[in-house]
Amino acid sequence: MRRGVTSFWCILAATASGLGGCAHYTAQPVDVGAFMTPSPQATAAFTDAPSFDALFDRAVRRHPSVRAAQQAYLAAQFDARLASQYPNVGLSLMAEYSKQADAAKSWLLGGALDLPIDTGGRKAGRLTDATLSTRVARYDLADAIFTVRTNLATSLATLQATDRLRGLCARNVDLKTQALDQATARVQHGEDDASILTVARLDVTNAQNACRDIEVRNATARADLAALLGLPVSELAGLRLPDYNPNLSVLPSETVSMRHERALYARADILKAIADYDRSENAVRVEVAKQYPEVRVAPGYTWERGVSKYPFNLSLVLPPADLNRAGIKAAEARRAAAGATLEAVVATQYAAEQKALSAYSQGLALAQQISVHDLPLAAAQSRRAENLTRLGEGALSDVLTAQIAHSDAQIRGEEAELATTLAHIQLEDAWRQPVSDTEAQTLSSLIKSMEISQ
Questions:
Q1: Which positions ≥6 away from 44 have C-beta within 8 Å?
Q2: Cα–chain center distance at 361
């Protein structure tokens, strides 16, 4: 009797000891209001960034979306480690009291473990799914980092271009206002028909509207940049921001081909679609494994009124009556759907790449046309009109007309260069990698440095 009771109490003591080693819950409340307040060190972190890459490095390490992706990647690693753990073990305890069988030995005490046999397709499927989840979380981190780069380049390029356009546009409005004043004077003196005033007024109105549009774009870019850096808009005025000047040139066909091939393994949406297909493939393997019984063993110990017994039970969880054929067909259908989704994602990426390539090539051609032909021609005509006026052979209205044409060409050139720059950014976004090999290596190193591990 004493031996059986001792064994029983040993089992209880071991169970209690295991419960005593459990972790305790600790609440971690958050203050949502604190998230909206930039820290005092935020502005200092972006002061005097020597280059765009330096500004990007500082911005990406502080951006909330990147930090969220980092924590998700870390959580996925812990989930993967959890998936490798042995499944939960069952423990059953039994006690029975009866004096009818033997008054001197009235107790029956026992315990048994329930051990799943963790092997085969089920275990492989669980581990594979955890590995794929970790991989997807890493893709999300890389995608978050590149998204910050794209948005930073877009807002910085737009802000700097619209800053230049503001001065050009103000000059343009001033020149067209002078032209309107001259036209008004000529009409008043009977030198021209009053209809020319309508054209002159429309020119001034259109120029003023263009200036308002530039102001809106400038304010939007400034707000976007401040949001990316986590600063109030007012703080940007005190920062000396680096220029964003990508190499706008014709891309060699070898570079385009290489970037296209690498994009298949650089874009997070494609990689996630591949991972989803791998998951569906893994699900088929798991469903095939479910055709076979799930085996569990239950070794135990029983002290039955003075007699020690060591029972050993083997239990089988049988497959469905159809040997899981329905589950296999459903998994195969999901695999086919995942394959079709992958094909659609690749097609979408290709369409985005072709659209960006077309926009970049057309924008580059227009910018070069304005820079090489239109601007020099307008500048030459403006100088010629001024020279003729100084010689007494030209009218002031001719000088003003030439100056307006030159001003219009300058604005068109600046707009064309901005459009080409934005198309270049969108092309890199479609490829999810910089055009420059040096920048691509720098970005790769940055992504690796941002991958936190458990």
A1: none
A2: 26
Alpha helices in 310-436 (DSSP H): 325-369, 375-390, 396-431
Distance spanning both ends of the chain, measured CA to CA: 50
- How would you label 101-124 residue by residue, b for 16+ Cβ within 10 Å and e otherwise? eeeebebbbbbbebebeeeebbbe
Q: How crowded is the C-beta side of 149, counted as CA atoms within 13 Å?
A: 28
Q: What is the pLDDT of residues 426-445, one digit of tens each?
A: 999 988 888 888 888 888 88
pTM of the entire predicted model: 0.81
Taking only the tens place, the pLDDT of each residue in 7-51 is 555 655 555 555 556 777 777 777 766 665 666 566 666 777 778
Q: For residues 45 and 58, is the Cβ–Cβ distance under 8 A?
A: yes
- HEC-encoded secondary structure of 198-210: HHHHHHHHHHHHH
| Identity of the highest mean pLDDT range in 40-54, 86-100, 238-252, 345-359 | 345-359
On the CB side of 281, CA atoms within 13 Å amount to 9
Residue 144 to residues 61, 149, 176, 408, 414, Cα–Cα distance (Å): 11, 9, 46, 40, 31
388, 402 Cβ separation under 8 angstroms: no
pLDDT tens-digit profile of 306-357?
788 888 888 888 888 888 899 999 999 999 999 999 999 999 989 999 999 9
Q: Parallel, antiparallel, or unpaired: how do β-strands 107-116 and 90-97 relate?
A: antiparallel
